[in-house]
Amino acid sequence: MNSEDVQVEIERFNTANDDASFSPESIAAILGVSLSWLQKKRCEGGGIPFSKLHYRKIIYKKADVLAYIERQRIQSTSQMAV
């Protein structure tokens, strides 16, 4: 995705309701992470909750993405896991 596409996805995410579904590609662009990071977190756990509609279709709900971001909040660098 180019930077213009990313901005479009961010705007679509921000204006969507909390039940809206997003593809892994959209979430990776919105959060600035790689698709492989999302895939790794789906396998290992500890990432954003997702739904697997069939063996190739994965979606993320906006509410789950926002809740994940909230859980990642810290007050100081001393709270960061090493």
UniProtKB/TrEMBL annotation:
- Domain (Helix-turn-helix) spans 23-73
Instruction: State the superkingdom.
Output: Bacteria
- For this entry, the protein name equals Helix-turn-helix domain-containing protein
